[in-house]
Design a protein that fits this description.
The complex is a heterodimer of chains A (about 120) and B (about 120).
Chain A (H helix, E strand, L loop, with lengths): L4 E3 L2 E4 L5 E6 L6 E7 L6 E7 L2 E4 L8 E4 L6 E5 L8 E8 L9 E2 L3 E5 L1
Parallel strand pairs in A: 2-11
Antiparallel strand pairs in A: 1-3, 3-8, 4-5, 4-9, 5-6, 7-8, 9-10, 9-11
Chain B lengths: L2 E3 L4 E5 L4 E3 L2 E3 L5 E8 L6 E7 L6 E3 L2 E6 L4 E6 L8 E9 L7 E2 L3 E6 L1
Parallel strand pairs in B: 2-12
Antiparallel strand pairs in B: 1-4, 3-9, 5-6, 5-10, 7-8, 8-9, 10-11, 10-12
Classes of the chains: A mainly beta (about 120), B mainly beta (about 120).
Chain lengths: ~120, ~120
């Protein structure tokens, strides 16, 4: 079956602009996660959705970052007033259900470059 | 706070050599889960193994084996008879038990296997 998909694969924007990154989880997966991976680092947690609601948004760095999952499937990560420090690969993962034990299936990521 | 340390930044081996990737973790929780993920050049993280904190039995899966030692807070990963296709970045990760299912990753170890 289809895995997690993310669009776009690459996004180049200018400092101060607004961007949206999309994640399509595996069908039927209720848990969805966003991570950010900077060069040479491991992924860092941003936010976790269980269904439509954000169960844990403790990793969002500031109020310029926001994510939604209105119908419990597709999710959009929104970044306002982008800064050069936001440049990274944004990874999405999904899991059949929430909970620490469950394997997370990762997408290929969106590489965001802020000029 | 949770922390995962992968002290080896990069390892180079010749094909057919055995290689061990080290992982040391810190957590105050008594129940937790440990994971290894592989990130090939394509960028998509691939799940390899999961272990819970109550199960210290070592595991072997084909050429892969894992050594979990709670006494030293280590969860090391060994590849036997390495192959060029094993070249990737390998991440160790940790979650606490319960509904908080965000992964805390180490910084990764880049494995380069050459002919």
């Amino acid at each position: 079956g289809a895995g997690v998909s993310q669009t776009p694969s690459n996004k180049v924007t200018e400092k101060g602009k607004y961007v949206e990154l999309r994640c399509d989880p595996i069908s039927g997966h209720t848990a969805l996660y966003w991570y950010r991976q900077s060069l040479g680092q491991g992924p860092e947690f941003l936010i976790y959705f269980q269904g439509t609601g954000a169960a844990d948004d403790s990793g969002l760095p500031n109020d310029r970052f926001f994510a939604v999952r209105p119908e419990g499937s597709v999710s959009t990560l929104k970044i306002q007033r982008t800064e050069r420090g936001d440049s990274a690969v944004y990874l999405c993962a999904s899991s059949p259900r929430g909970g620490s034990y469950n394997e997370q299936f990762f997408g290929p990521g969106t590489r965001l470059t802020v000029l | 706070a949770q922390k995962v340390t992968q002290a080896q930044t990069e390892i180079s081996v010749v094909e057919k050599e055995d290689v061990t990737l080290d992982c040391v973790y810190e957590t105050r929780d008594t129940t937790y889960y440990l994971f290894w993920y592989k990130q090939p050049p394509s960028g998509e993280l691939v799940f390899l193994i999961r272990r819970n904190s109550f199960d210290e039995q070592n595991e072997i899966s084909g050429r892969y084996s894992w050594n979990f030692q709670k006494s030293t807070s280590s969860f090391n990963f060994t590849i036997t008879a390495s192959q060029v296709v094993d070249s990737a970045v390998y991440f160790c990760a940790l979650t606490q038990a319960g509904t908080a299912s965000k992964l805390t990753f180490g910084t990764g170890t880049r494995l380069q296997v050459t002919l």
